[in-house]
């Protein structure tokens, strides 16, 4: 017998799970290093604008599609546009989620490696050069990198196979607030180091002359990546939501939390980068190299580092769960008897797809496709091409295929008034979002340069 579709058990549960999907490597690991390589403050400002005027309306659109249809990422599009191929948006989202999770699990593995190193005491008392060297040699070791990636995928599979709701809901409610607190402690230390001004200036002072078209595309990709928008993951999560929930409010809370965590990550990292003489453009290793150096300068630093890494790992898991959940939900179509098998098979396939990424900093470092290692290529493809393309399709689909009355009905549930806000959202999703995404793409391919 087909079991009934699961639902989130509480309002807060949904909010925490959706915030858990959003907050992860994007805000904590990727954001500081992309700011670092894309020129600092100007990038941050553009990222903020994209997040508020493009990311937020997109998140709301995904919520409306999910809750409005109460279906998985593929069936949702079929529900609103039967007999058409708009369901390709969901299919693309699922394929893209596989690619993203494959390299995401590699970075998840790095956190596990660091956790082991921190617990064993090997991360304390090193100097600047030694921290970089340690990170590079750890992730270059093929056995360590692949084993850690495997452990990360294994835990993701075990939890998703159980059905995320109860476990994730409960754990998220404790871990998310704890993560905020851990960040505050870290920032206090970082801001009391010598030479803080330069780091703050780099991070927050917008110097537009350093902003390239590529950096603008990265800012767009980063805002989608950090909000989990574009792959229909949020369609899937909101499909488990009751009709009473106030969607605009949930979306706004998630966006604010996400911006706040990105800001905290930047404030924690950049003052330390400059005080210790690291390079802001160090790339994907930035956080891993700078963090232990900051913690090392605190009393009980290694204890705090372990706590921080645990929370960071948890934030990464809650995003990974959502990436696997969208795939499992679309294949099982709500039939929970198939969940376990489907989760194991897809999870293992994703692990295998991720192996070349895990080896990208070691044995495969010279293996390049389009001039990029498998790790860089997957990241680039997901962040800067697949997410914006997915978002563009969803922005076109929503006003075109969902009747305005239905959009309004989903928008206004749980609130009083809201007509003006709805008109603003509709304007953004119908015109501003698609036009802005297209302009950013055209700019990158050089259409506006003479
Ligand atoms: N938002 C997640 C993070 O910032 O780590 C990553 C992510 C999850 C992106 C789910 C896209 C997605 F669909």
Automatic annotation (TrEMBL):
Keywords: Membrane, Symport, Transmembrane, Transmembrane helix, Transport. SUPFAM superfamilies: SNF-like (SSF161070). The keyword Transmembrane applies. The chain crosses the membrane at residues 12-31, 43-65, 86-119, 139-161, 173-192, 215-241, 253-278, 298-331, 343-364, 384-402, 422-448. Its main location: membrane. It comes from the Bacteria. It is found in: Membrane. It is a multi-pass membrane protein. The keyword Cytoplasm does not apply. Belongs to the sodium:neurotransmitter symporter (SNF) (TC 2.A.22) family. This is Transporter. It comes from Scopulibacillus cellulosilyticus.
């Amino acid at each position: 017998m087909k079991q009934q579709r699961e639902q989130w058990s509480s309002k807060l549960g949904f909010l925490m799970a959706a915030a858990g999907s959003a907050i992860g490597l994007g805000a904590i690991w990727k954001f500081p290093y992309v700011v670092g390589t894309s020129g600092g403050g100007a990038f941050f400002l553009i990222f903020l604008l994209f997040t508020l005027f493009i990311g937020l309306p997109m998140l709301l659109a995904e919520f409306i599609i999910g809750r409005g249809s109460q279906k998985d990422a593929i069936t949702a599009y079929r529900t609103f546009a039967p007999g058409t191929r708009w369901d390709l948006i969901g299919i693309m989202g699922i394929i893209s989620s596989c690619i993203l999770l494959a390299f995401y699990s590699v970075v998840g593995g790095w956190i596990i490696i660091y956790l082991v190193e921190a617990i064993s005491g090997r991360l304390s008392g090193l100097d600047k050069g030694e921290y970089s060297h340690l990170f590079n040699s750890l992730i270059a070791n093929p056995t360590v990198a692949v084993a850690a990636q495997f452990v990360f995928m294994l835990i993701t599979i075990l939890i998703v196979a159980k059905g995320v709701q109860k476990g994730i809901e409960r754990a998220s409610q404790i871990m998310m607030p704890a993560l905020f607190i851990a960040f505050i402690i870290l920032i206090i230390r970082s801001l009391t180091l010598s030479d803080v001004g330069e780091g703050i200036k780099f991070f927050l002072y917008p110097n537009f002359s350093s902003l390239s078209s590529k950096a603008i595309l990265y800012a767009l990709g980063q805002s989608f990546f950090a909000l989990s928008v574009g792959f229909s993951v949020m369609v899937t999560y909101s499909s488990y939501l009751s009709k009473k929930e106030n969607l605009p409010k949930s979306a706004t809370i998630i966006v604010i939390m996400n911006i706040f965590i990105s800001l905290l990550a930047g404030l924690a990292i950049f003052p330390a980068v400059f005080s210790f003489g690291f390079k802001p453009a160090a790339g994907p290793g930035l956080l891993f190299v700078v963090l232990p150096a900051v913690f090392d300068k605190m009393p009980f630093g290694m204890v705090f580092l372990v706590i921080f890494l645990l929370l960071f790992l948890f934030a990464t898991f809650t995003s990974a769960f959502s990436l696997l959940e969208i795939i499992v939900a679309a294949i099982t179509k709500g039939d929970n008897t198939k969940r376990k098998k489907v989760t194991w098979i897809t999870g293992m396939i994703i692990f295998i797809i991720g192996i070349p990424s895990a080896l990208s900093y070691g044995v495969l470092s010279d293996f390049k496709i389009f001039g990029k290692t498998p790790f860089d290529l997957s990241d680039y493809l997901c962040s800067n091409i697949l997410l914006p393309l997915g978002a563009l399709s969803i922005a076109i689909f929503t006003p075109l295929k969902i009747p305005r009355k239905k959009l309004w009905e989903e928008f206004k549930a749980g609130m009083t008034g809201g007509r003006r806000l709805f008109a603003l959202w509709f304007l953004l999703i119908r015109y501003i979002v698609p036009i802005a995404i297209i302009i950013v793409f055209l700019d990158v391919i050089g259409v506006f340069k003479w």
